[in-house]
Automatic annotation (TrEMBL):
This is 4-hydroxybenzoate polyprenyltransferase, mitochondrial. It comes from Chrysemys picta bellii (Western painted turtle). It catalyses: all-trans-nonaprenyl diphosphate + 4-hydroxybenzoate = 4-hydroxy-3-(all-trans-nonaprenyl)benzoate + diphosphate; all-trans-decaprenyl diphosphate + 4-hydroxybenzoate = 4-hydroxy-3-(all-trans-decaprenyl)benzoate + diphosphate; an all-trans-polyprenyl diphosphate + 4-hydroxybenzoate = a 4-hydroxy-3-(all-trans-polyprenyl)benzoate + diphosphate. Its EC number is 2.5.1.39. Catalyzes the prenylation of para-hydroxybenzoate (PHB) with an all-trans polyprenyl group. Mediates the second step in the final reaction sequence of coenzyme Q (CoQ) biosynthesis, which is the condensation of the polyisoprenoid side chain with PHB, generating the first membrane-bound Q intermediate. The keyword rRNA-binding does not apply. Keywords: Isoprene biosynthesis, Membrane, Mitochondrion, Mitochondrion inner membrane, Transferase, Transmembrane, Transmembrane helix, Ubiquinone biosynthesis.
Length: 323
């Protein structure tokens, strides 16, 4: 989003620059790269009602919409985490960064591509969660936070999850086939990461690094979808920044499961860093900001882009200090 605002503001004429600021909004880049808060979810009403009131209210939150879906459909929607859309945003945002950077100066990014990648993010996040829960069904039963997942509680059988996974991947393939040949090959190459990531917590204390490599693939794919191929001087620093960002937010997230992870024998960066987590988060933040700066330099971004990067840096510093 920093790239989007910066490129819009390079349109000729002061009036055009002012209009772009009013339309795009300069506060969004920092919000787009902000680390999500993983607190306990609220209690969406869905098609519930206030106790004793006898009235029914409809919630348009993601969790509310899932809870109001037909009963047989709900386990599948929860399996692909439609009730928890933050993961879809984390997968989608790196795509928007590269699509924004690839836009022509003074132009909005390609709205068709943004929509296409948004659809792909929903499908691939759902497929990734399905694969993860298939691998982890025995582990999930032993962790309070994951014990209610559909496969773990038996709402969906292993065979049904395979069929559902096939459907999601087939639809995702349809989205991928809308891109150029270079991007089709590049997108297909990410499937090995999607399949193997859930196993990494059994092997290494750095599963969050593999998650970063997986979740930020869109930083490469978005550029190639617009330009026809990757400009590695831009795409690699952007991809690196995304990986660092994932290490930040998922290390913070992993701290809530440390006790359970020790009991069942799985690994994480939270266990690896332990009391030194704040220092590691600070290092990842510096690396992320450096990558964003290099990407901006290599695609001729303007002062506004670096102002947004500075705001992101202030936000990350605040999180590291108050971790």
């Amino acid at each position: 989003m920093a790239a989007l605002v910066a490129r819009l503001c390079r349109a000729p004429g002061t009036a055009a620059g002012l209009r772009c600021l009013l339309r795009a909004g300069c506060a969004r880049p920092a919000a787009a790269l902000a680390v999500p808060t993983h607190g306990a979810p609220g209690s969406p009403l869905g098609l519930g009602g206030e106790a004793g009131s006898g009235r029914r209210s409809l919630s348009f939150s993601a969790a509310g919409l899932v809870s109001s879906a037909p009963g047989p459909l709900q386990p599948y929607l929860r399996l692909m985490r439609l009730d928890k859309p933050i993961g879809t945003w984390l997968l989608y945002l790196p795509c928007t960064w590269s699509i924004g950077l690839a836009a022509e100066p003074g132009c909005f990014p390609d709205w068709y591509m943004l929509s296409l990648f948004g659809t792909g993010a929903v499908l691939m996040r759902g497929a990734g969660c399905t694969i993860n829960d298939m691998w982890d069904r025995d582990y999930d039963k032993k962790v309070l936070r994951t014990a209610s997942r559909p496969i773990a509680v038996g709402d969906i059988s292993t065979f049904q999850s395979f069929v559902f996974l096939g459907g999601q991947l087939s639809l995702a393939l349809c989205v991928l086939l809308c891109l150029n040949y270079y991007s089709i090959a590049l997108g297909a190459a990410s499937l090995s990461l999607v399949i193997t990531y859930p196993l990494m917590k059994r092997i290494t204390y750095w599963p969050q690094l593999v998650l970063g490599l997986t979740f930020n693939w869109g930083a490469l794919l978005g550029w190639s979808a617009i330009k026809g191929s990757c400009d590695w001087s831009v795409c690699l620093p952007l991809y690196f920044s995304g990986v660092m960002w994932t290490l930040i937010y998922d290390t913070i997230y992993a701290h809530q499961d440390k006790r359970d992870d020790l009991v069942i024998g799985v690994k994480s960066t939270a266990l690896r860093f332990n009391e030194n987590t704040k220092q590691w988060l600070s290092g990842f933040s510096v690396a992320m900001l450096a990558g964003l700066s290099v990407a901006g330099i290599n695609c001729d971004q303007t002062f506004l882009y670096y102002t947004a990067v500075a705001a992101i840096g202030a936000h990350l510093a605040h999180q590291a200090v108050h971790f």
